[in-house]
């Protein structure tokens, strides 16, 4: 075999789950001087369409990855959380937290300035402690953990941190499963095999909602539930078509599409900061548009099967109202662009949802349609949502030039990953070109995978 090409050395492996679990179990013993009671895994996600619209009730088309986050844990009865991550960019040694004293971001900010709150080197630990906080309040008593329940936890991930592939939700969801198994009645009453069955889709949806509360209320990031839902409720070989009005979903077989085509993520190596002001600011712009239109959710301004013509009608109504509207200090044209992104993104999702339901259209036709939609989605992320960045734009352009069927930035933006759909035969030439764009670029195969589980 010849020397490894520049692109082939850049693929990030999902690893072998069993070996990762063994490594984590061994490390756990070294770190805490006791045995862990199990290892739990939750996947990251890619999203074909539906960015920045989950919190507006839009439809998203995500799938879980084979890459994700592993959590080894053992329970404690003193309400203490001891955490350590093997992720070298985050690890600064073991962190100890009083699980009884976790506070929502809004309360913390009464005591700290915003800058102090965000500067905290241990802010990643809030994704874990936030889940403990949320699971103490969850409605279903079978899933609720009691005060005094703490844990020793060791974490390892095969996802790039802040790479737009939902590393934070994966950490939350793996933590949630560990909590339920070790500290909630459902877990203590059911041995492992039975617990998997007892974790029905409805219970997984309740856990996703709890993880979302952890992120919104404790971490303080105004995200919308797409990531947690995908991580806990995905299915192998399928994408989920997720209606974010009520988080109902249909699981759509896409293995037929992957015959002859490949989906992969290009991690730019430029991590985003979700809790940072930019994401919240984009969401705030779009919420001004929502208020001006007197809507509870932007999805409600469009019909069930929306077209671009419907988008124009809403924009025309917005323009009529804009003259006398209160923009709450936000830039009117920017607010209009955020609105246009949300509405066109909703149209794209609904169209794809209908197309995927029709396998009779054939692979090439479906791929061409999906690719075009992805690229249109990227343009909207760049021009209207304004969450893209130069390297992501260069990756999209270069991928398309080298034969990709479609490419787009996914996740919250301001860093993160680009998703590429390409005919199998052009993957090598595309990745070789992309690898030359920046030394930090990595590739991640998108294999539609099953949901969070115990190992
Ligand atoms: C992040 C958030 C999600 C969603 C996306 C953008 O991943 O966690 O809720 O808003 O950004 O679509």
Explain this structure to me?
Residues 113-119 have low confidence and may be disordered. The protein is globular, with a radius of gyration of 22 Å. It contains 15 helices and 13 strands. The strands form three sheets. It has a six-stranded mixed sheet, sandwiched between helices. Strands 10-11-9-12 form a four-stranded antiparallel sheet. It has helices at 17-32, 105-111, 114-119, 126-135, 167-183, 185-189, 192-198, 201-219, 226-233, 277-292, 308-322, 332-356, 363-383, 390-401, 427-435, and strands spanning 38-47, 59-60, 62-76, 80-85, 95-98, 150-157, 238-243, 248-253, 261-267, 406-410, 417-423, 442-445, 453-454. It is α+β, with helices and mostly antiparallel strands and 455 residues long. It has two domains: 3-252, Ribosomal Protein S5, domain 2; 254-445, GHMP kinase, C-terminal domain (Alpha-Beta Plaits). A hairpin with a 4-residue loop joins strand 7 (238-243) and strand 8 (248-253). Helix content is 42%, strand content 18%. Residues 51-52, 54-55, 166, 223-227, 411-412 line the site of alpha-D-galactopyranose (GLA).
Bound molecules: alpha-D-galactopyranose
Beta strand %: 15-25%
Arrangement of strands in the largest sheet: 5-4-6-3-1-13
CATH topology of the largest domain: Ribosomal Protein S5, domain 2
Low-confidence segments: 113-119
Please give the radius of gyration in angstroms: 22 Å
Based on the structure given, which CATH architecture of the largest domain is correct?
Answer: 2-Layer Sandwich
Mean pLDDT: 93
CATH class of the largest domain: Alpha Beta
State the helicity in percent bands: 40-55%
How far apart lie the N and C ends? 35 Å
Q: Would you count the extended β strands for me?
A: 13
Helical region count?
A: 15
Q: Report the order of strands and helices.
A: HEEEEEHHHEHHHHHEEEHHHHHEEHEE
Oligomer: single chain
Integer tally of domains: 2
Main sheet?
A: 6 strands, mixed
User: By helix and strand content, what is the structural category?
Assistant: alpha+beta
Large-scale geometry: globular
